[in-house]
Amino acid sequence: MDADTRTKSNRKPIISVRDLYKIYRVGDNRVHALDGVSFDIYKGEFVAIVGASGSGKSTLLNMLAGLEPPTKGEISIAGKRIDRLSESQLVAFRRTNVGFIFQSYNLLSTMNAEENVAMPLMFRGVRRSERLAKARKLMKLVGVLDQAEHMPNQMSGGQQQRVGIARALVSDPRIIFADEPTGNLDSRTSMDVLRLMQRLVREEKQTLVMVTHDDSIASYADKRIRISDGKIISMEENDGER
């Protein structure tokens, strides 16, 4: 047993999934979108869930984020069984524990960059001056402080995605979920964003779970969970640097 394996065996996972199923009824048929999935993710890991379209990876991400209930099985995040929470409890849980990075950026066109980053703090009742100060701090961290007063349509795709990453970080979440975060970016910008995500995981000790269909993008993660037809077919550690 290597040192890293021993370390993991002595601590609790931040995400624990056991025997997870998602079954849809389509006419008289039952479709298993997820078919008995189990795994653990630890604090400070960058994990990619990899699979082709229809493999079940997006369904899995939605259930980890509490956006979709499982048919059967357990999902524990930071020691809390989220599969047992009501919808209002899930909303509160996401607000305090989870950050999201979207493929389509999802920035509000009527707000400038720093207002977009600060928006999650508005829902917590944080004063405007405090939330804008926090937003600027994180925009500096991800390299877009010079875009603070720009509207989304005045920024490139890469800049918008960096703003989206800053927004995901602003609430100090325990976990960040990223859904095909480089899907709308060119290859060079994708590489820059993925390296930024790597740095945030390593330097800021963030836990990041990313869904992708692309093996080259998944190779930036510390661990790859490969899924096909609703089942995990492999779990691979990435020992190399990119």
Q: List the strand order in the largest sheet.
A: 6-7-8-3-9-10
Q: How does the overall form come out from the CA principal axes?
A: globular
Helix count, DSSP H or I runs of 4 or more residues: 8
Low-pLDDT residue spans: none
Helix and strand composition category: alpha/beta
Q: Biggest sheet, in brief?
A: 6 strands, mixed
The radius of gyration computed from the alpha-carbon positions, rounded to a whole number of angstroms, is 18 Å
Query: H/E element string?
Result: HEEEHEEHEHHHEHEHEE
Kindly report how far apart the N and C termini lie.
25 Å
Strand content: 25-35%
Q: Residue share in helices?
A: 25-40%
Mean model confidence by pLDDT: 91
Topology record:
Elements lengths: L2 H7 L5 E12 L2 E13 L4 E5 L6 H8 L7 E6 L2 E2 L5 H11 E4 L11 H10 L5 H15 L14 H13 L5 E5 L7 H18 L2 E6 L2 H4 L4 E6 L2 E7 L5
Q: How would you concisely characterize the structure shown here?
A:
This protein has helices at residues 3-9, 57-64, 87-97, 113-122, 128-142, 157-169, 187-204, 215-218; strands at residues 15-26, 29-41, 46-50, 72-77, 80-81, 98-101, 175-179, 207-212, 223-228, 231-237. By secondary structure, the protein is of the alpha/beta class.
Account of the protein in words:
The protein has 242 residues and is α/β, with parallel strands linked by helices. It has helices spanning 3-9, 57-64, 87-97, 113-122, 128-142, 157-169, 187-204, 215-218, and strands at 15-26, 29-41, 46-50, 72-77, 80-81, 98-101, 175-179, 207-212, 223-228, 231-237. The strands form two sheets. Strands 6-7-8-3-9-10 form a six-stranded mixed beta sheet. It has a four-stranded antiparallel beta sheet with strand order 2-1-4-5, covered by helices on one side.
